[in-house]
Amino acid sequence: MAVLTTLVLGSALSVPAPYEVQEMQQFNGKTVILAAYVSPDAVGHSLLIVRNGAGKTLWKQYLGWKYHIESVNKNITVRTVRPDRRTFLRVFDLQTGEKLGEREVVEATPTQP
C-alpha cells in the first residue's frame, strides 16, 4: 500500500522538464499544480495542471508569469503577468479546463505627494 501511495503521489507532483512545481493545492478532490521556469532569455513560463486522485492529468494550460491561484466556487482563478508586463486574471472550470473568462487588471501604483 505504501508503494502505491508513493507512486500516485510521485505522479501527482511530477511536471514536464524544465518546469518546477511552484504551488500545489487540493480542490474538490483534484490536485492543482502551478509549475514555472525561466528560460535562458529571462522570459518566465508557467504551466497550470489539474490531476485526478490517481495522478492522471485531466487538463493543462500554458500561462505567462504566475502570481497566484485561488478557488472560487468550482473554478480556478490564475493571476499572470505576460512578457509585455500586462497583468491578467483568467478563470478556468475545475472539471474541464475550459477557459471561462479573462480580463486585464490595472495595477495601481502609489504616488508621491
Automatic annotation (TrEMBL):
Identification of the protein by name: Uncharacterized protein
Species of the source: Deinococcus antarcticus
